């Protein structure tokens, strides 16, 4: 039997726990699935992590790195028990904000929103803003390649990672990437570690690119009779020469759910609403972008276009989008929540196919999300206590995944694969591609101790 208590000699007794309270607190994430670890360890430093991994590798003890545990696919769940490597207690510092080079160096457990606030106080800007920004960590964002509402203009986490420090399963410490803008020396190991879900190495430090903070921004809302018209407006806008910061949508089911819960006066008869935001440094930039967006919206049967005149009106416009996820439980006690993504021009076809699948299986499937980058959160709503409904829900999800792949899309735009989507990897990748993934995993982690069972590996 492995001697888990040996880890206390590395981190100190005050940072090692195997009591029921800690094991239960760290056995679940946002999926609500539960896998109990053998112990929970809070490393104090990169050196601690190196020693922990070296010991666990020698004794073939599974390790699951964990940030905030806010993921939707089970990436931080200890499927094979072993050690939860909990980073939030000690490795949560912003190490540097370099205004001259416009970069930040952070430890992995820095909360996304805390970093945003810190750099904005210096007149800088870190755009990736997942919905979980108030509590998700930068290390988790990197490990899942998180997106957010501003991805339409600014991109996703990988577009801002310049360099990483990480510990390999054998305890060796590596650097991947550089602070320099250009770097083509050697293989792109940094790129392999991004979105690897903690299966290859434990990230201990992240260097991020920052931008200058735009001086102005403004939000607007478009109301459409049909979801097809709204989706047509999305890709026409994005190819028009105007690039909104965000282009978010709610379908009719989502609108009704928010209105039932919060009574905000939303247009419950609308087929869809689009919420957009533009930014810039001159009022003329803002005006031009909004004029072009309104023109395209109205050309696609937008029956009402509202522009926020102040911060309060902007907050009201964004309320429905920011709160929709918690509202759709009016349709069922359990949601099978997927974040499929297709090329923007395929959005109308994708949503039409989802509607067909919902009717076929007699399930309610509210959809909302980041249409500016083709990322749709589709939610198959079922009674979580009904085994027959759960089976039907999984059949519907399988067909939705197949339709997504046929349209040139992907299983996940930002939530990752983890445990939840691992069974579907064979839909998206060939045998040769899956074997390539496994060979990369073996090269980094020959004893398969790091986050085993994730990503179908």
Q: Summary?
A:
By secondary structure, the protein is of the alpha+beta class.
Explain this structure.
The chain is of the alpha+beta class. The protein folds into three domains: 6-89, Uridine Diphospho-n-acetylenolpyruvylglucosamine Reductase, domain 2; 94-212, 2-Layer Sandwich (Uridine Diphospho-n-acetylenolpyruvylglucosamine Reductase, domain 3), CATH 3.30.465.10; 216-406, FAD-linked oxidase, cap domain/gating helix (Vanillyl-alcohol Oxidase, Chain A, domain 3). The protein is 35% helix and 21% strand. It is built from 15 helices and 18 strands. It has helices spanning 6-11, 20-25, 46-58, 112-120, 138-144, 151-154, 189-193, 227-238, 252-262, 283-299, 311-327, 347-361, 387-406, 425-428, 431-444, and strands at residues 16-17, 39-41, 63-66, 83-86, 94-98, 103-106, 124-125, 161-167, 173-177, 202-209, 211-212, 216-224, 246-251, 272-280, 302-307, 334-341, 367-370, 375-382. The strands form four sheets. Strands 15-12-14-13-17-18-16 form a seven-stranded antiparallel β-sheet, with helices on both faces. The protein is globular.
